[in-house]
Specification:
The chain has 110 residues and is an alpha+beta fold. It has a single domain, classed as YaeB-like fold (2-Layer Sandwich). The protein contains 3 helices and 5 strands. It has helices at residues 3-16, 22-28, 37-46, and strands at residues 18-20, 48-53, 61-67, 73-80, 85-91. The protein has a 5-stranded mixed sheet. The radius of gyration is 13 Å and the shape is globular. The chain starts with a helix and ends in a 19-residue tail after the last strand.
Length: 110
Protein backbone atom coordinates (compact mmCIF):
# COMPACT_ATOMS: atom_id res chain seq x y z
CA UNK A 1 0.00 0.00 0.00
CA UNK A 2 1.47 3.37 -0.93
CA UNK A 3 1.91 6.18 1.59
CA UNK A 4 -1.04 8.27 0.33
CA UNK A 5 -3.46 5.32 0.44
CA UNK A 6 -2.28 4.41 3.94
CA UNK A 7 -2.71 8.03 5.08
CA UNK A 8 -6.28 7.99 3.71
CA UNK A 9 -6.93 4.73 5.59
CA UNK A 10 -5.60 6.30 8.82
CA UNK A 11 -7.81 9.35 8.47
CA UNK A 12 -10.86 7.25 7.63
CA UNK A 13 -10.32 5.06 10.70
CA UNK A 14 -9.64 8.13 12.87
CA UNK A 15 -12.90 9.73 11.77
CA UNK A 16 -14.79 6.62 12.94
CA UNK A 17 -13.28 6.18 16.39
CA UNK A 18 -9.92 6.51 18.13
CA UNK A 19 -8.87 3.88 20.67
CA UNK A 20 -5.87 4.48 22.94
CA UNK A 21 -3.59 1.82 24.39
CA UNK A 22 -2.76 2.00 28.08
CA UNK A 23 0.75 3.08 27.10
CA UNK A 24 -0.58 5.95 24.96
CA UNK A 25 -2.77 7.19 27.83
CA UNK A 26 0.17 6.97 30.22
CA UNK A 27 2.35 9.02 27.85
CA UNK A 28 -0.42 11.56 27.20
CA UNK A 29 -0.71 12.17 30.93
CA UNK A 30 3.00 12.49 31.67
CA UNK A 31 3.49 15.63 33.71
CA UNK A 32 5.85 17.24 31.18
CA UNK A 33 3.67 16.34 28.17
CA UNK A 34 -0.08 16.53 28.91
CA UNK A 35 -1.14 15.80 25.32
CA UNK A 36 -4.86 16.22 24.69
CA UNK A 37 -7.07 13.96 22.58
CA UNK A 38 -7.75 17.02 20.40
CA UNK A 39 -4.04 17.43 19.67
CA UNK A 40 -3.84 13.77 18.66
CA UNK A 41 -6.86 14.13 16.39
CA UNK A 42 -5.26 17.20 14.76
CA UNK A 43 -2.09 15.23 13.99
CA UNK A 44 -4.07 12.29 12.60
CA UNK A 45 -6.26 14.45 10.36
CA UNK A 46 -3.68 17.07 9.29
CA UNK A 47 -0.25 15.58 9.98
CA UNK A 48 2.08 13.51 7.86
CA UNK A 49 3.59 10.05 8.02
CA UNK A 50 7.31 10.31 8.80
CA UNK A 51 8.05 6.62 9.41
CA UNK A 52 6.18 3.59 8.06
CA UNK A 53 6.11 0.21 9.84
CA UNK A 54 4.35 -2.20 7.44
CA UNK A 55 5.67 -5.30 9.26
CA UNK A 56 4.86 -4.21 12.81
CA UNK A 57 3.74 -7.12 15.00
CA UNK A 58 0.66 -5.08 15.95
CA UNK A 59 -0.29 -4.63 12.30
CA UNK A 60 0.71 -2.02 9.73
CA UNK A 61 1.42 1.14 11.70
CA UNK A 62 3.29 4.39 11.31
CA UNK A 63 4.73 7.39 13.09
CA UNK A 64 2.86 10.59 12.32
CA UNK A 65 4.04 14.13 12.94
CA UNK A 66 2.15 17.37 13.10
CA UNK A 67 1.80 20.61 15.00
CA UNK A 68 -1.21 20.99 17.25
CA UNK A 69 -3.31 24.14 17.14
CA UNK A 70 -1.29 25.30 20.17
CA UNK A 71 1.88 25.08 18.05
CA UNK A 72 3.38 22.07 19.82
CA UNK A 73 5.05 19.37 17.74
CA UNK A 74 3.40 16.00 18.41
CA UNK A 75 4.31 12.45 17.37
CA UNK A 76 1.63 9.74 17.19
CA UNK A 77 2.27 6.05 16.50
CA UNK A 78 -0.97 4.55 15.22
CA UNK A 79 -2.46 1.64 13.31
CA UNK A 80 -5.77 1.62 11.40
CA UNK A 81 -8.38 -1.07 11.93
CA UNK A 82 -11.67 -1.50 10.09
CA UNK A 83 -13.75 0.21 12.78
CA UNK A 84 -11.24 2.42 14.60
CA UNK A 85 -7.76 3.90 14.71
CA UNK A 86 -5.51 2.40 17.34
CA UNK A 87 -3.15 4.94 18.97
CA UNK A 88 -0.20 2.94 20.23
CA UNK A 89 1.76 5.82 21.74
CA UNK A 90 2.19 9.55 21.50
CA UNK A 91 4.77 12.00 22.74
CA UNK A 92 6.33 15.40 22.24
CA UNK A 93 9.56 14.89 20.25
CA UNK A 94 12.67 15.97 22.14
CA UNK A 95 15.52 17.88 20.51
CA UNK A 96 18.02 15.35 21.93
CA UNK A 97 16.56 12.64 19.67
CA UNK A 98 15.14 14.60 16.71
CA UNK A 99 16.48 17.14 14.26
CA UNK A 100 14.94 20.64 14.32
CA UNK A 101 12.29 19.58 11.80
CA UNK A 102 11.05 16.91 14.30
CA UNK A 103 10.83 14.51 11.33
CA UNK A 104 14.37 13.16 11.23
CA UNK A 105 15.94 11.07 13.97
CA UNK A 106 19.38 12.20 15.07
CA UNK A 107 22.09 9.64 14.49
CA UNK A 108 23.55 8.15 17.63
CA UNK A 109 27.10 9.19 18.31
CA UNK A 110 29.36 6.18 18.64
Amino acid sequence: MNKDNFLDKLKEAGNKKIVYTFHAIYEMNAEDEMISTEEIREVILHGEIIEDYPSDKRGHSCLMFGFSSTGRPVHVVCSPRDEFLWVITTYLPKEEKWEKDFKTRKRRKE
